[in-house]
Design goal:
This protein is an all-alpha fold. It is built from five helices and no strands. The radius of gyration is 30 Å and the shape is rod-shaped.
Length: 109
Amino acid sequence: MPSDSVEDLLKNDFDGLAEGLEKDRFAEQVLFKLTAKSRMRQGIVFFAGGLGAAFAASQFSGVVDAFSLQLAETSLNASPAFGELSHIAATLLLAGALAATVLVLRHEA
């Protein structure tokens, strides 16, 4: 029947138009613009976290010394692992700061 070929032609035309719309990047561009503020905020938090980590790393020996002085006043200074204890305490303190930064970033995403 001749009407079948017209229906097939229309279906092919509509499929071609729909395919062109699916490849349109409009929706992707809109989503990109909408999430730009969130990405900027995450970038600032990453930068601040990195800068804070750099300062913390540069002060690591000072933190270890502070823990050493504090631990020297306790009865733990008789322990053979006394020197390691202050390093472990300073490492745990910095790990806590890193964990807090990760929690902030998780809530931003």
